[in-house]
Write the structure tokens for this entry.
Amino acid sequence: MKRVSIKDVAREAGVSISTVSRVLNNSAPVSDDLKEKVENAIKKLDYMPSNIAKSLRKGKTGTIGFIIPDITNPFFANIVRGAEDYLRQRDYTLILCNSDQDEKQEVKLLETLISKHIDGLLFTGTGNFNPVLAEKIERGFNVVFLDRIIQGISASYVIVNNSKGMYELLDYLTVTGHKEFVFINGNKETFSAKIRYETFKKVMGEKKLKFTHFYTNFSYEAGYNFGKKMKKMPDAIVCGNDLIAYGVIDALEDRGFKIPEDVSVTGFDDIPFSKHYKPPLTTVRQPMYEMGMKAAELLVKIIEEKQINTEGIILEPQLVIRGSTRRG
Ligand code: RIB
């Protein structure tokens, strides 16, 4: 369908294009008679003014891009909600894209979003260095990393204190008598999986405890497939996130094991289902909604105040003890 132009409106109303523009932008006085003619023509033709011209004049589009790995993971859904609720209050529109934890897809989405002249980007990256992103940031493109810092790139960020969360979880497990551990972690290239493993390895060394560690991916299927094949049960299976833990629990229970009687299982994130899981999941809560809101607030500050120095915000995790772990 042919797009109605400002020229069509002027012709229909029998006025000049500048008169139509003055009515649209309220930029100069127009007689009531002419104003009514223009408004009637806009209604009759169902004219929608293009935002592009206004955006180019203002030097901003009022849109923010957000690249995440996968919206079907409730962790990301919750951070997106927090970000969008803040942005909407500040008259920004969010454009959400899923990278599927694929670096090529990430670059493609980044280039598409930049071609749409977004004012800034919230970015939860796959993990490894992204040269296209690094070059854009060098040139002053506004980015805030959310949940995952990207190695080798200096930018503002909002993350949770992953180490503190792991320390508190492992402290609880060791105090309640767990001595042998298996850690089924998420994607190897991600900041969050790496830092949780570093802390886990450090605590195991300090307490001289037996452990094995495996990188998989942050999904239910990864947990289920691992749980299906496990031979000897440790005292506790620490999982990189709640979805992995759900998969492990289901696989072990399908094999006749009891959780936590035969083995304790823990997660990370505390997505909404975890308190209702069977058994309810012991996990580390990330303030997901708040992370999204704080990251959006920081990005708007960078855009509107032209802030150049990077800023990092580290939020507090919270250990949540439920029925998937033995108490001693
Ligand atoms: O559930 C997805 C995981 O990857 C979360 O733990 C989050 O930290 C993200 O990095």
